[in-house]
Every structure is written in C-alpha cells, then in structure tokens.
Amino acid sequence: DEILECLCIDLINETDKLPKADMVVANLLIEYIGYECFQKAIKQVSPKYVSCIIQINTEGNWVSDSPYLHIFDGLEQIHHQMEEQTLEKEMLEIGYHVINTLEHLLPNGKKFIQIDFERSF
Fold first, then answer.
1. Helices in 5-116 by DSSP H: which ranges?
2. Distance of CA 1 to CAs 4, 25, 49, 56, Å?
3. What is the pLDDT of residues 85-119, one digit of tens each?
4. Are 32 and 78 contacting, i.e. CB atoms less than 8 angstroms apart?
5. CA distance linking residue 106 with residue 103, whole number of Å
6. Whole-prediction pTM value?
7. Which of these, 115, 108, 114, lies nearest to 62 by C-alpha position?
C-alpha cells in the first residue's frame, strides 16, 4: 500500500521505530542529530536512495543576523557543523556512494549542498 504515515519519533533514542523505505529525504536534519545518529537511522530504514541538504557556513555563525537571531539560541547546544567530505565518508562506511551533488549559494557566505546517495549493495 502506498500510504503516507506521519510518525513522531525521537531520532536520537528511538531509531528502531523507523520503518523501512525506498528513499530518505533529510534536508537540514543531520546538523541536529549528528553523523552517527544519521548513520543509525539510515541503516534502520535501509533505503536505496538518500537525499540530503546540509548548510555550509563559510563566515562563522550558522544563523544569519536578523531580529529573530535569539530564537535559535537553544539550538546551539545540539547543532553540529557539517562538512561535505565527512558526510560522504560516513555514508560510504555504511554502503552509500554519492550519485549527485548540487550547490546553492546563500547570503552571508553560506551555501546549501545537496548530496544524493545510492546504496552500493
């Protein structure tokens, strides 16, 4: 059955509750759970394809200056700085290789990098 089922799951502590899927889209997620937890989630779901977007910060702060800057203060405790090569290495460790990469330049010296992976086995 092709049914969308929304699940509320703690990705840090309840990875085993994730269902199997053909594809995972993880845009701006890995920054908040880290590489190791993301690997664990992907191994549980066992998709053929994984598409991720990570934010690269070339000029320091990961949140752009705005009147809403302090809304993100609490997230600083869980935010992990992402690196494209590190994510590729971590995914290769669990059997996923890069099939596509796109860069989207953002204001304030930031950029989004979309990296698509395919399971190697």
1. 30-45, 84-93
2. 9, 20, 20, 38
3. 999 999 999 999 999 999 999 877 788 999 999 99
4. yes
5. 10
6. 0.82
7. 108
